[in-house]
From TrEMBL:
<keyword id="KW-0328">Glycosyltransferase</keyword>
<dbReference type="InterPro" id="IPR001173">
    <property type="entry name" value="Glyco_trans_2-like"/>
</dbReference>
<keyword id="KW-0808">Transferase</keyword>
<dbReference type="GO" id="GO:0016758">
    <property type="term" value="F:hexosyltransferase activity"/>
</dbReference>
<dbReference type="Pfam" id="PF00535">
    <property type="entry name" value="Glycos_transf_2"/>
</dbReference>
<protein>
    <submittedName>
        <fullName>Glycosyltransferase family 2 protein</fullName>
    </submittedName>
</protein>
<dbReference type="InterPro" id="IPR029044">
    <property type="entry name" value="Nucleotide-diphossugar_trans"/>
</dbReference>
<feature type="domain" description="Glycosyltransferase 2-like">
    <location>
        <begin position="5"/>
        <end position="117"/>
    </location>
</feature>
Length: 312
């Protein structure tokens, strides 16, 4: 039987936390639920204590200084504290469905497979959150990939380098990975990234580990969309958006430099990093930067996120 540690970073999630924890407790495969409380300013800490007191499988941790360190650092602390052979993640405002580990029960019997990912659904909890989400993302109610894949195909697909469209990033809520695989590759979340640390982690994970798609045509977990979702607050091509994308691609670029990646992969990561680096510049500095970059490599003008003078 699977032996799973569920890691839940907790920050200002008092309204949702109990449902999230109960959704994980329904599975006998779940050995422990690790709550990492990140200095919330609502009643989250009190609820965490209550849940831990009520069930021995619920464990509560805080950062040593009891300060706020963000979701990446909280997940890393959870990984360090986990004692299960397998690790899963769950956001405190989301929840698992009864079929959450159906694919894992079969696929993870194969020692070659380090991790399994599936699809998640979207539940709109507020009208404002719904409008903000739909204005920035597709109206699809399922976050999934377009076709079954495993191994190298997953890594290239997430970077948009497969012959056919691979699709969305799969969500952490639908990922199960062997703890031993994380330890072997010394892989953790990048603490510098306050957003996109999940996408950064997933891409790196898909390179270092053998991942396989599980249930991709129906949800195994639900993502709650509400007024306080951070990712929906950032307008596309705003200075803040460009800055955070620059940090994300710089993280991937620094990670990729010592690795024996295929040339098209290395080029793609560099060009995306360079594009967002230039998108943060303004006026003549931006014009000169684009010209110099284009002279060195004209592919910079065909990056996915084109930067134009109107975005200065």
């Amino acid at each position: 039987m699977l032996d799973i540690s569920v890691i839940i970073p907790v920050y200002n999630a008092a309204e949702f936390l109990e449902k999230s924890v109960q959704s994980a407790l329904q599975f006998e495969e779940v050995k422990e639920i690790i709550l990492v409380e990140d200095k919330s300013i609502d009643q989250s800490l009190e609820i965490c204590k209550k849940l831990a007191d009520e069930n021995s499988r619920v464990l509560l941790f805080q950062h040593p200084d009891k300060e706020n360190h963000g979701a990446a650092a909280s997940r890393n602390l959870g990984i360090e504290k986990a004692t299960g052979n397998f690790i899963t993640f769950l956001d405190a405002d989301d929840y698992y469905l009864p079929n959450r580990f159906d694919a894992e029960k079969t696929l993870l019997n194969d020692p070659k497979i380090d991790g399994v990912f599936s699809a998640i659904g979207i539940e709109y909890l507020t009208e404002k959150g719904k409008l903000e989400f739909q204005s920035k993302f597709s109206d699809s109610t399922l976050t999934t990939v377009q076709y079954p894949a495993e191994g190298k195909e997953v890594f290239r697909g997430l970077l948009g380098l497969t012959p056919k469209t691979f699709g969305s990033f799969f969500h952490l809520n639908a990922l199960t990975v062997r703890k031993s695989a994380l330890e072997q590759s010394n892989l953790r979340f990048n603490n510098i990234l306050r957003v996109h640390q999940d996408s950064d982690f997933i891409i790196k994970l898909s390179y270092h580990c053998h991942l396989k798609s599980g249930i991709i045509d129906q949800a195994v977990a639900m993502r709650g969309i509400h007024d306080d979702n951070r990712i929906t607050k950032i307008a596309r091509y705003s200075p803040q958006y460009n800055q955070r994308q620059h940090l994300f691609w710089t993280s991937l670029y620094e990670w990729s430099k010592p690795l024996p990646l295929e040339k098209d992969v290395s080029r793609h990561i560099y060009l995306q990093k360079k594009a967002f680096e230039l998108s943060e510049k303004k006026g003549i500095s931006k014009m000169v930067g684009i010209l110099v970059a284009a002279l060195k490599n004209s592919d910079i003008l065909r990056t996915k996120y084109r930067f134009t003078y109107s975005h200065s």
